[in-house]
Amino acid sequence: MQCFFYGITRAENSRDGHNGVVSFSIPDMGIIFRAQFTGNAVECEYASLLALLEFIEINPHLFSNRTVEIYGDSFEVVNQVNLQMVCQKDLEPYRNMALGYKKKIPFSLNWIPEKENPAQSELGMR
Questions:
Q1: CATH assignment of the domain containing 104
Q2: 5: nearest Cα among 54, 61, 47, 37
Q3: Which domain, by its residues, includes 22?
Q4: pLDDT of the chain along its 126 residues, tens only?
Q5: Into how many domains does the chain fold?
Q6: I want to staple 4 with a disulfide (CB 3.0 to 4.6 A). Which of 36, 106, 116, 119 is the partner?
């Protein structure tokens, strides 16, 4: 099952202080999730991946007997979680949480171009 994550920050904070959006999409199930988030661009991207992984973990009946393939356009997040890139100290807690999920949920994590990421639909235009 293909799943996609995407995070973006806005130039300014919204009235409630949130400057980012986390998003994930599971097209085969018709699921699109979006929530506000406060953090820098990479933190938003990690938060999007972690939200997706939490969704998968708490809904095992939707993913049983399926291969979970996760895609994101964040080169940094994908390569840090795949242990192919050094992780900055401040991002280690996020990466470590993703690695913790990898012990519980068998999934592959791959990079795709932003324009091919259905989780970003309409978000990148704002």
A1: 3.30.420.10
A2: 47
A3: 2-120
A4: 999 999 999 766 555 556 899 999 999 999 999 999 999 999 999 999 999 999 999 999 999 989 999 999 999 999 999 999 999 999 999 999 999 999 999 999 999 999 999 999 765 443
A5: 1
A6: 119
